[in-house]
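Why do we care about 3D structure at all? Because function follows from shape, and shape follows, mostly, from sequence. That is the central idea of this module. The next example makes it concrete: a single protein chain, its amino acid sequence, and then its structure expressed as tokens.
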Amino acid sequence: MGCMCSTLASKFAFFPPSPPTYKILHPENNDGKLTVVASPSSTTTSFPLPHAQDNSLDVLLIDNKRGSKIVAFYLRNPYARLTLLYSHGNAADLGQLYDLFVQLKVALRVNLIGYDYSGYGASTGKPSEENTYADIEAVYECLETEYGVSQEDLILYGQSVGSGPTLHLASKLPRLRGVVLHSAILSGLRVVCHVKFTFCFDIYKNINKIKNVKCPVLVIHGTEDDIVNWLHGNGLWEMARDPYEPLWIKGGGHRNLELYPDYIRHLCRFIQEMENITTEIRLKKIRQNMHVHKRSCASHCCRIKVCRPKCPECSMPKCVKCSWRPKCSSCCWKPKCSSCWKPKCSSCWKPKCSSCWKPKCSSCWKPKCSSCWKPSCIKCCWRPKSLKCAGPSCCITCFQWRCCVGGTQSGLDRRQDG
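And the structure:
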């Protein structure tokens, strides 16, 4: 049922440009190089497309594990030390983004690879959540095998819907250099309605995957985003394990953040700092995060929350707020009722409930009826705290406190013995 709902949700989540803004021409000569031309059926002709003689661009056709052929643009920069893997947003394809790719390649001094999801642009297949995961995995494998790019030299960039496949891959690569989330989403359903729970039919559950990303995460979001609320970006930034200084663009919307000067300035600073991170610094940061994680785990309380007993001599508290530990470390205890616990070692403590409590002295009392009992001695048995408790609960003949406590009022105000 969850899979069917997820497939249905995918139909309303993806809006590829129709018709595509470009098409792929296969080579007529023996050089084997693909070329890109404008689609004749496209109504948008204002987007610049790459020239066939551009040697800094490789047009790739990549097979993913689900049988689709993915179109990717790989743009080289001779001064680059890092590679940026760009996952674009909804309702866009590579023909519309090529000019932006060229600007980012030059301004950030990186090699850049962008790709179209299944069913977008000239890529085959149908758009879906699982297909986008297969698409980005295939592009990463191509970077490893064809261009020799390791995860230590790779930065993942996800815009809007592209944050889904970006965080999917980032959660699987522990030595990744960095992640950029541009107008990212917490999950697909949270964009439509404000829910606090994750449902089985939700798509792109980034709220669960961001916690598994171990590299620095830069979040960029516009404060006036009317499609993906700013709270999505803020939530991802707060949950990141290694958050970088975020960029909240005042007045920025969902599709115009690249027009603000702070966008490219802040992104350049992030790329430069990622370039200057050496292996020694990365290992030191990992050790620090592991130390903080261990310390936080040690300070966590036990999962089972119980009440601390009234008598301080009966137990030694482990956590004052929510848990305690009995004096006898060898005894293990299991709940018998919802309000109290009964340890195996009877000398540790006495619970509140009369049905679970057994006195130390087995010969000091015997209940005459199921609702009440008559104690035989003062030392081992407990006494009521107030005069209201001295009255019989079911019958008068079998429950008389004055005979037991000697008829003194001082004995009624004392606390429990034992």
